[in-house]
């Protein structure tokens, strides 16, 4: 073997999981279900599947073994498979492969496949018994993602039918009992880990030792959005979460007598509702100036604040100097090429700083991290079942998550963790996070239950580890009926069947199908891809006005964020042909990366739609009416219905109302937010989100007749008789 190979082998043998190898294999061969827990980095994800693979090969069953290991996120499925292939001295696609929504590498001899949980659920659609699969490994179950909880119900159901199938559940925290008892007392194995000690610094210590001064002014400045901020604060007070009020209570009771006046003053200015960019900047420059070498991992809440923080840090004399600091981002929607940089060691004398979302808590291990900066928050979706509205708020993390974050600093040597909140706030955190199934709208999930033929929806969901509220389930079922995916008796309609194979939310899938039928596929695919990836329109804080007017130019007088998106994308396609895609994006405040993601998603839509038989082979006829923006607007309306609000034009402003929420507002980067008047009676929208008030992210104005015909009738038509009512319209257009 090469020395590289030997080194790898040595590394693998040094991991804590290696000592448990035989015990793990024995338990797996003797039990159908095994729960494995062990601290992050001990070797669960990369080693355990390999142990099984190797032992199957030793037992001469290598050719027939087929392991599937699910990951909650695309990027970890990819990163892990790459790592495992490298450990085996192979290329991806030999014994190890991966599959995620838009990509995958798998060969004839691939016995170990890493995939997203969603991909395995999709496979179950066409292969209910997972024929040929010998082992299913569900990773990161402690995260309690919706897909993972759902998969566990399905697998629990499947196990009696496949007595030879082995199920291994892997968790990074010690709540293994919960999963074990769900599977009738399955054996639990714990891999004792080893990490170096990590010193925790809470806000009071940070302020005391660095002398940094928090001021109320600074905090408002940090966010750059004073107005929103103030409004938020007022309403937050009204509808406070339990944790938020617990935090406030402890803060009131906290006593900092042992600290300097300066620190006490600072602490009284600390604002629990915002993330202080200036404080982060200060801590980072403190680390870079004073501390020993080692990478820094900063936990932020999401893509948006990572990007704004990155912008701010890039202007800093030390942190923005590429010869001294390598500034990287790590979040779920980054490009796959970007992710490799995170794992690489920076050049000598350069400090790596990774700004990450909570995905770096457990599923991704960056080896050289010595410092962790923890803002204490994560963006968590919650769901207000009463008003049938999803809410997206940065919320306090759990104690378990805070411990995880801290642990990331002790991988290779002892480390330091800077928690940017006082110790008493940590004490008020809840122990674990609420499972996603209990805080998300359930439409896609309910559609999947029907398409997998798993029986009655509420009955099925009542078998979950922690079942969702009946009202949430009812809302989802009602919605699927309204869009015509389910009939009155909760049976899947033809439309519903078609929707279940499209990897997007049901209503967006419906928009795609209508786009195909009405022969305006290209623009509709762009809208759907854009709505399911993310917004390509960027609004940097310091150039907000310029960015907004660039977007408004795309919309023209169409009063539509979606049409603006179509035009911006088409402009990018043209620019790409002339090799000036990046320049085009730069000029117009657009994200080239997002357009690339939209592009590949569009390709996938097209091939899936071809499979359904809804589009023919030639591209030309799919787009016979694509230039007709009235038709495209109508299809957008048909897809987004019943997401609609009425427009009331006032003297100098507009008032928007929906049936459920009363008054709603537009996000400031919507083209319609800049308009003094909207000459249409309705706006259709994809997403409303409760932050403080209810906000609409994106919207398209439509007329009465379009809303009635395309919003109302087409929905009903789809429901009544297998899209038969569409016939009339189709004749009109063909
Ligand atoms: P677990 O799943 O228990 O959290 P992993 O199997 O992901 O642990 O990782 C085991 C070890 O392998 C990590 O501690 C890390 O040292 C190493 N490792 C994992 N992924 C990579 C990678 N992409 N590059 C380099 N080392 C890695
Ligand atoms: Mg892991």
From TrEMBL:
<keyword id="KW-0347">Helicase</keyword>
<dbReference type="GO" id="GO:0003724">
    <property type="term" value="F:RNA helicase activity"/>
</dbReference>
<keyword id="KW-0547">Nucleotide-binding</keyword>
<protein>
    <recommendedName>
        <fullName>RNA helicase</fullName>
        <ecNumber>3.6.4.13</ecNumber>
    </recommendedName>
</protein>
<feature type="domain" description="Helicase C-terminal">
    <location>
        <begin position="279"/>
        <end position="453"/>
    </location>
</feature>
<dbReference type="GO" id="GO:0016787">
    <property type="term" value="F:hydrolase activity"/>
</dbReference>
<dbReference type="GO" id="GO:0003723">
    <property type="term" value="F:RNA binding"/>
</dbReference>
<comment type="similarity">
    <text>Belongs to the DExH box helicase family.</text>
</comment>
<keyword id="KW-0694">RNA-binding</keyword>
<dbReference type="GO" id="GO:0005524">
    <property type="term" value="F:ATP binding"/>
</dbReference>
<feature type="domain" description="Helicase ATP-binding">
    <location>
        <begin position="25"/>
        <end position="192"/>
    </location>
</feature>
<keyword id="KW-0067">ATP-binding</keyword>
<keyword id="KW-0378">Hydrolase</keyword>
<dbReference type="GO" id="GO:0005634">
    <property type="term" value="C:nucleus"/>
</dbReference>
């Amino acid at each position: 073997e090469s020395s590289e190979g030997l080194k790898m082998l040595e590394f693998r043998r040094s991991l804590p999981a290696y000592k448990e190898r035989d015990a793990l294999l024995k338990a797996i061969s003797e039990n159908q279900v095994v729960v494995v827990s062990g601290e992050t980095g001990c070797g669960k994800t990369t080693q355990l599947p390999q142990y099984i693979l190797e032992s199957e090969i030793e037992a001469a069953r290598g050719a027939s073994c087929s392991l599937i290991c699910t990951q909650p996120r695309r990027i970890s499925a990819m990163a892990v498979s790459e790592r495992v292939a490298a450990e085996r001295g192979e290329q991806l696609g030999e014994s190890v492969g991966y599959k995620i929504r838009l990509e995958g590498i798998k060969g004839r001899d691939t016995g170990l496949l890493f995939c997203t949980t969603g991909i395995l659920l999709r496979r179950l659609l066409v292969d209910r018994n997972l024929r040929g699969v010998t082992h299913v490994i569900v990773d990161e179950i402690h995260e309690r993602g919706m897909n993972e909880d759902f998969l566990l119900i399905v697998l629990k159901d499947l196990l009696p039918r496949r007595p030879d199938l082995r199920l291994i559940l892997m968790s990074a925290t010690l709540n293994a009992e919960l999963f074990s008892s769900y599977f009738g007392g399955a054996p639990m194995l714990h891999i004792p880990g080893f990490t170096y000690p990590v010193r925790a610094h809470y806000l009071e210590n940070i302020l005391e030792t660095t002398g940094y001064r928090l001021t109320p002014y600074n905090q408002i400045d940090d966010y750059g959005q004073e107005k929103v901020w103030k409004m938020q604060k007022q309403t937050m007070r009204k509808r406070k979460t339990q944790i938020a009020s617990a935090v406030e209570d402890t803060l009131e009771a906290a006593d900092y007598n042992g600290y300097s006046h300066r620190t006490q003053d600072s602490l009284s200015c600390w604002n629990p509702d915002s993330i202080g960019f200036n404080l982060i900047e200060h801590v980072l420059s403190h680390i870079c100036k004073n501390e020993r070498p080692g990478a820094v991992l900063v936990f932020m809440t999401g893509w948006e604040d990572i990007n704004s923080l990155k912008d701010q840090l890039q202007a800093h004399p030390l942190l923005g100097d590429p010869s001294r600091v390598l500034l990287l981002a790590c979040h779920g929607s980054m490009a796959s090429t970007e992710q490799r940089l995170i794992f690489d060691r920076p050049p000598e004398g350069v400090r790596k700083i990774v700004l990450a979302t909570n995905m770096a808590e457990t599923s991704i291990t960056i080896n050289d991290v010595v410092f962790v900066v923890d803002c204490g928050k994560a963006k968590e979706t919650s769901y207000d079942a009463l008003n049938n509205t999803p809410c997206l708020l940065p919320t306090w993390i759990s104690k378990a998550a805070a411990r995880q974050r801290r642990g990331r600093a002790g991988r290779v040597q002892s480390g330091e963790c800077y928690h940017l909140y006082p110790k008493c706030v940590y004490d008020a955190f809840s122990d674990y996070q609420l499972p996603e199934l209990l805080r998300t709208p359930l439409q896609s999930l309910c559609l999947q239950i029907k398409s997998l033929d798993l029986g009655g929806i509420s009955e099925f969901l009542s078998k979950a580890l922690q079942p969702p509220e009946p009202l949430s389930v009812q809302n989802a079922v009602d919605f699927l009926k309204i869009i015509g995916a389910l009939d009155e008796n909760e049976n899947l309609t033809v439309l519903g069947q078609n929707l279940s194979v499209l990897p997007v939310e049901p209503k967006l899938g419906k928009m795609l199908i209508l786009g195909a039928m009405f022969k305006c596929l290209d623009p509709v695919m762009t809208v759907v891809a854009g709505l399911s990836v993310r917004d390509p329109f960027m609004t940097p804080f310091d150039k907000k006005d310029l960015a907004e007017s660039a977007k408004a130019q795309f919309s023209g007088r169409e009063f539509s964020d979606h049409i603006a998106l179509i035009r911006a994308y088409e402009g990018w396609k043209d620019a790409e042909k002339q090799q000036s895609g990046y320049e085009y994006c730069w000029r117009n405040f657009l994200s080239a990366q997002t357009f690339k993601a939209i592009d590949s998603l569009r390709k996938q839509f097209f091939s899936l739609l071809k499979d359904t038989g809804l589009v023919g082979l030639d591209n030309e006829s799919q787009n016979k009416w694509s230039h007709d923006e009235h038709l495209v607007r109508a299809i957008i309306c048909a897809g987004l219905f019943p997401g609609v609000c009425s427009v009331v034009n006032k003297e100098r402003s507009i008032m928007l109302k929906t049936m459920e929420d009363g008054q709603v507002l537009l996000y400031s980067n919507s083209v319609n937010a800049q308009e003094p008047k909207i000459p249409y009676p309705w706006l259709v929208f994809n997403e409303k989100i409760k932050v403080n008030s209810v906000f609409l992210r994106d919207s398209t104005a439509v007329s009465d007749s379009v809303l009635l015909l395309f919003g109302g009738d087409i929905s009903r038509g789809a429901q009544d008789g297998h899209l038969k009512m569409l016939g009339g319209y189709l004749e009109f257009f063909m």
